[in-house]
């Protein structure tokens, strides 16, 4: 996550998270630290995994005090081990105490997503299939969670509703059918947008192919149905598989030879990675 993205897209979200945690003052910190004292604290990994979100962690402290300095001994995407010293933060001890929970919340959440994504992406090695995330993200956390998916080796599906055309079951119902929905989308959407259609059975697959869909998403279909759908499509559209895909069941999809597999579990079900800040002391 580069500095421009951080400034334009992330800073206001981080500030809102800090305001959520400090509505008026940090009473505990102000009680024991009545004035500025320079200090240092260690960033320690307590569980094996993939680290993601280090710059967000750094930014939390910088937004509280621009003079805070953070030094890292690893980078996003690195595999980290339990007990590993990953970095140090130096600055006003009041800032280190007040910012630690928000900073860790981001780092733990993002690292958990990267770790889980890496474990799923490994199962697709040697195939042409790309692992995608979805819009099933935590409100106001999408930019962080989708970044973490990329760090873990996955790819981003559309970022939001303005980012692409995906005609799902209710869009198709509203339009009056697959063919009509595709026709209306083709007329309305900018020509640079590809049109993806979610289908639930083989009849819808045939309709989507005939309507000229660019991407066809096979949603919650059986293994046999998906095999037949791939045959029907016959290379006339790209294919995405979706529907309750997790690390435990993705193996059933790897032999299909589809272009994409999307999984909401990457963001909505990944456990956090256990990380801590320890050994705070004055310097």
Biggest sheet character? 6 strands, parallel
Structural class by secondary-structure content = alpha/beta
Number of E strands: 12
| Rounded mean pLDDT score | 96
Major sheet strand order = 6-11-10-9-8-7
Give the ordered list of helices and strands.
HHEEHEEEHEHEHHEHEHEEHE
Beta-strand proportion? 15-25%
For the termini, the CA-CA separation is 31 Å
Seen as an oligomer or otherwise, the chain set is: single chain
Proportion of residues in helical segments: 40-55%
Indicate the radius of gyration in whole angstroms: 23 Å
**Low-confidence runs (pLDDT<50, min 5 residues)?**
none
Topology:
Layout: H1 3-21, H2 27-32, E1 38-45, E2 49-50, H3 54-64, E3 69-72, E4 79-80, E5 85-92, H4 93-121, E6 130-132, H5 142-151, E7 165-167, H6 169-175, H7 178-188, E8 195-199, H8 202-211, E9 215-219, H9 223-233, E10 238-242, E11 260-262, H10 265-268, E12 275-282
Parallel strand pairs: 6-11, 7-8, 8-9, 9-10, 10-11
Antiparallel strand pairs: 1-5, 1-12, 2-4, 3-5
């Amino acid at each position: 996550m580069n500095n421009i993205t951080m400034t334009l897209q992330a800073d206001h979200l981080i500030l809102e998270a800090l305001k959520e945690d400090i509505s008026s003052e940090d009473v505990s910190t102000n009680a024991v630290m009545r004035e500025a004292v320079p200090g240092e604290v260690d960033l320690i990994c307590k569980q094996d995994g993939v680290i993601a979100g280090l710059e967000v962690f750094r930014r939390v402290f910088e937004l509280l005090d621009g003079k805070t300095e953070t030094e890292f001994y690893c980078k996003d995407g690195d595999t980290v081990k339990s007990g590993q010293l990953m970095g140090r933060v130096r600055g006003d001890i009041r800032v280190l105490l007040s910012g630690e929970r928000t900073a860790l919340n981001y780092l733990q959440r993002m690292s958990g997503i990267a770790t889980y994504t890496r474990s799923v992406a490994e199962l697709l090695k040697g195939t042409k299939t790309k692992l995608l995330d979805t819009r099933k993200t935590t409100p106001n956390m999408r930019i962080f969670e989708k970044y973490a998916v990329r760090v873990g080796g996955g790819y981003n599906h559309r970022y939001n509703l303005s980012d692409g055309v995906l005609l799902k079951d209710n869009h198709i119902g509203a339009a009056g059918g697959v063919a009509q929905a595709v026709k209306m989308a083709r007329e309305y959407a900018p020509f640079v947008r590809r049109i993806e259609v979610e289908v639930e059975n083989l009849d819808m697959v045939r309709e989507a192919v005939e309507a000229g869909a660019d991407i066809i998403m096979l949603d919650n279909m059986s293994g046999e149905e998906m095999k037949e759908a791939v045959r029907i499509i016959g290379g006339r559209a790209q294919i995405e598989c979706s529907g309750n895909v997790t690390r435990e069941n993705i193996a059933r999809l790897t032999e299909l030879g589809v272009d994409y597999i999307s999984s909401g579990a990457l963001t909505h079900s990944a456990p956090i990675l256990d990380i801590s800040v320890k050994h705070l002391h004055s310097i």
